[in-house]
Amino acid sequence: MKKLNKYTPIDIWDDPYRFTCKEIMEVIGESEAKVLYSSLYKHSPKKKYRTMSLKTVYKDCDTEKYVFELSDGKCIETVFIKRRDGGTACVSTQVGCSVGCIFCESGRNGFVRNLTPSEIVQQVVLLRRKVNRIVFMGMGEPLFNYDNFIKAIHILRDRNGMNFPTDGITVSTVGPVEQLKKLREEHLKIQLTISLHAATQAARNRIIPNMHIYDINDVVNGALSYAERHNRKVVFAYLLLQGINDKPSDVRQLVKWFGGKNVMLNLLEYNPTSNTQIKKPAKQEMAAFKQQLERAGLEVTMRISHGSKIKAACGQLANKYNKIIE
């Protein structure tokens, strides 16, 4: 018995950004689907489809922050960082966030809802800019919106549309263990960044309180397993916080985990948020911490933040507009 397609032409023409080209072909035929897909991602569509609306744009030197209003009145923020030959799109996957990192504004109002594949994809499309790198480092935890996040990647890399290269996509995650295992088995060799931020369970529980159910060793081992499975370097992000995760014992644990592994440590500098309890280390302290790790043989970089003046840097994206709308 022939399986009936669960989508209809009305679904396709209402919001085509939520589908892969293959899904559209199954409903409206190959020829028409390819024309539609090409118009969506390679040209400017003649037809007006249901899309997010641009609420406002903030600009500062090489960084732009876009506030998009969704169909239900909720808002998300997307960042574009200009490079010489294009730019990086920092994309959100949720309205709000449930993780609760103490250094991040995105979850200040809690979790509101997941974004659809269409809402994720449109953040790249509606920038109307040359994007040559996509980082899932915006609002929300991507792996807590797993299915929609994965489908959005399939749409972005669809050869009939944007044909975005997989190695140009990075996902930053706090590392929920079950989802990390699922990601390892995907046939998607995307770049993986783990927001680790601690070398002990106690410190991580303090920095990322809502991740206390996951053992820090399981998170590390899951990421290292991903590196082995896909033969690519995994980045561990480490936001240095004075008196919390900057001790000599922390250095020793990081070396124990990552010595001789295909790993890069990315030291982050705290970007000011509404949390006045956080103490930002001095530049010299960060440099000293970095040198200790390098002397032990680890590969270490220090991330340069962009857009802090417009609240577009890491940890500063928020859903403040949702307070007004609700």
TrEMBL record:
Q: Name one GO molecular function term.
A: metal ion binding
Write out the GO biological process terms. rRNA base methylation; tRNA methylation
**Residue span, Radical SAM core domain:** 83-309
SUPFAM superfamilies from the UniProt entry: Radical SAM enzymes
UniProt cross-references to InterPro entries, sorted A to Z = Aldolase_TIM, Methyltransferase_A, rRNA_lsu_MTrfase_RlmN/Cfr, rSAM, rSAM_sf
User: Which GO cellular component terms, listed alphabetically, does the Swiss-Prot or TrEMBL entry include?
Assistant: cytoplasm
Q: Cite the Pfam families for this sequence.
A: Radical_SAM (PF04055)
Q: Does the keyword Oxidoreductase apply?
A: no
Name its co-factor(s): [4Fe-4S] cluster
User: Keywords in UniProt for this one?
Assistant: 4Fe-4S, Cytoplasm, Iron, Iron-sulfur, Metal-binding, Methyltransferase, S-adenosyl-L-methionine, Transferase
What domain of life? Answer: Bacteria
Compartment(s) of residence: Cytoplasm
Q: What is this protein called?
A: 23S rRNA (Adenine(2503)-C(2))-methyltransferase RlmN
| Annotated organism of origin | Sedimentibacter hydroxybenzoicus DSM 7310
